[in-house]
Specification:
It is built from 8 helices and 13 strands. The chain is an alpha+beta fold and 316 residues long. It folds into 2 domains: 145 residues, Trna Endonuclease, Chain: A, domain 1 (3-Layer(aba) Sandwich); 105 residues, no CATH class. A hairpin with a 2-residue loop joins β9 and β10. The N and C termini lie far apart (101 Å).
């Protein structure tokens, strides 16, 4: 008397079904195996859902799965083949529900798929009854969801599914402010227009930097306003200097704005000395291209930076 046995092929088939179920669940859908009266279909991918709203469409895709741990027919690094039984092929093509063939190797977590109806639309391909899988184009994984959804939805259904969320890398253009000037100078000035102030500074032939701003009839700067050339454009009797922390840690929005403006102007001055240009429209610094020159980079261990603000003209 011999007891009942579980064959290695049965275990392999279940491992293949488990792999397919895992991938289907990663898509956010449901895998239902067909355990009764299997006549060429191993399972169904159903409750095709909208990836954004989760709304079910009442559409399904039927699956014929084939698992192996050996090499597939004509397998190479780029592809493989699978021969289809003529009776299975007739059955798959006769129905009103899309059928996909999935071949897999469970131990390697790899699976490949094709839509039977689309693949055998050409009668010349149907006669040999062999499916050629491209290992890159026909890979079955979570990214196959969009194509499967379009396969499942009837063309006249009028159902719209939002596109799948795509992962992307975001890179911040903010750098930590590691240091700044210890004092801020404030003085009254007769100038009200920054352009006129620039003209006066340039007439003095000093090449003064842009680390200053005009606001509320005052000149505010990291530069010592009692020194040349700023002593020529402000009222020295009104000049005061403050600990920069009073601006950097202030809760007053005006002072916060002034501090940020000064940091940005300082960054522009630093960039100019390093032959970087500033694109005001797109708000970035860049090296001007030069033919025949090698690529140039700046890789500093630290820098001071806050997003540029509009309103302060660059030195001409």
């Amino acid at each position: 008397m011999h007891g009942k046995k579980v064959t290695p092929q049965s275990l392999l088939g279940q491992l293949g079904a488990n792999l397919i179920e895992k991938i289907v669940l990663q898509m956010g859908w449901i895998w239902r195996p067909v355990n009764v009266f299997d006549v060429g279909i191993d399972g169904e991918i159903d409750e095709i859902r909208d990836p954004t709203t989760g709304e079910a469409t009442n559409c399904i895709v039927r699956v014929q799965a084939k698992a192996t741990e050996r090499a597939f027919a004509s397998e190479s690094e780029s592809g493989l083949e699978f021969p289809c039984d003529a009776n299975d092929l007739d059955y798959w093509l006769r129905g009103n529900v899309p059928v996909v063939l999935i071949v897999c190797r469970p131990s390697a977590d790899e699976a490949y798929w094709v839509s039977i109806r689309d693949y055998f639309r050409d009668q010349s391909v149907r006669k040999p009854g062999r499916v050629r899988f491209d290992k890159k184009a026909n890979r079955f994984d979570a990214t196959s969801a969009a194509t499967l959804r379009q396969l499942a939805l009837p063309r006249d259904s009028g159902i719209y599914s939002a596109p799948l969320h795509r992962a992307e890398s975001l890179y911040s253009n903010l750098l930590m402010v590691s240091s700044f000037a210890s004092r801020i100078f404030v003085a009254d000035t007769e100038f009200r227009d920054p352009k006129l102030l620039w003209a006066r500074l340039n007439s003095l032939g000093t090449g003064a930097g842009p680390e200053w701003l005009l606001t509320d009839k005052k000149l505010i700067s990291f530069q010592n306003l009692t020194s040349f050339p700023f002593d020529k454009v402000c009222d020295l009797g009104t000049c005061e200097d403050f600990d920069t922390d009073e601006w950097a840690t202030s809760t007053d929005r005006d002072r916060q704005w002034q501090f940020i403006r000064l940091l940005n102007m300082s960054l522009k001055a630093l960039a100019r000395r390093r032959r970087l240009r500033y694109d005001a429209k797109n708000e970035y610094f860049y090296f001007r291209g030069q033919s025949g020159k090698e690529e140039r980079r700046r890789e500093d261990n630290h820098a001071s930076y806050l997003p540029p603000l509009d309103g302060h003209p660059d030195a001409p």
